[in-house]
Amino acid sequence: MKNNIKKAHCAVDYAFQRIGGKYKGRILWILRDGFLRYGELKRAVVGITPKMLTQTLKELEADELIVRKVYLEVPPKVEYSLTDTGKELIPFISQMRSWGEKQMSTN
């Protein structure tokens, strides 16, 4: 996706093109503590379809925010974790989470 990003009008626009969407921030947040397998991610991201999870993981991997590690074993094993660039986003996602909690409690 990094190569497919439309011309950003500003840095905020660029950032939201890479991490915006319904599930990307949630997946990044869930992966903050380490690696998870596909099935674990599917259970952790409530409401996501398998097709959408696969598509979102591919986009995050293309943007170099997560890494996909494939183990050559039977049954196949795949793990997802944050890259260093993805880890840089966690403090900002944490701040957005705190803001969201505050807003939800006032409404």
Q: What's the tally of helices? A: 5
Helix content: 55-70%
Strand line-up in the sheet with most strands: 1-3-2
Q: How far is the first residue's CA from the last residue's CA? A: 36 Å
Which word captures the global form? globular
Compute the CA-based radius of gyration: 15 Å
The residue-averaged pLDDT reads 90
Order of helices and strands: HHEHHEEH
Structural class: alpha+beta
Binned strand content: 5-15%
Number of strand segments? 3
The largest sheet is: 3 strands, antiparallel
* Unreliable residue stretches: none
Helices and strands, with pairings:
Elements: H1 11-19, H2 24-30, E1 36-37, H3 38-44, H4 50-62, E2 66-71, E3 77-82, H5 84-106
Antiparallel strand pairs: 1-3, 2-3
In summary, what is this structure?
With 107 residues, this protein is an alpha+beta fold. 55% of the residues lie in helices and 13% in strands.
Task: Give an account of the 3D structure.
It is a single chain. The chain has 107 residues and is α+β, with helices and mostly antiparallel strands. The protein is built from 5 helices and 3 strands; from the N terminus they run ααβααββα. The model has no long low-confidence stretch (mean pLDDT 90).
